[in-house]
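Take just one protein record:
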Amino acid sequence: MISVALSLSVVLLLGIILIVLIRGKSIKAGPAFVAILFGFFLASTGMAPSINRFLNSIADTINHITF
């Protein structure tokens, strides 16, 4: 369940960043659309589980940092 919440949070964060980049004219709509399609198709490849494990390990590491 944490993985789903983490995935949703990452998707929302990346979506917000993409909107900010488009509105700030740092990236045009065409390249943003290509980036979205790249991510969509990358998610259906064999690399998707490895990417998820990598991102989950980073989130786990950040979660275990104590101040």
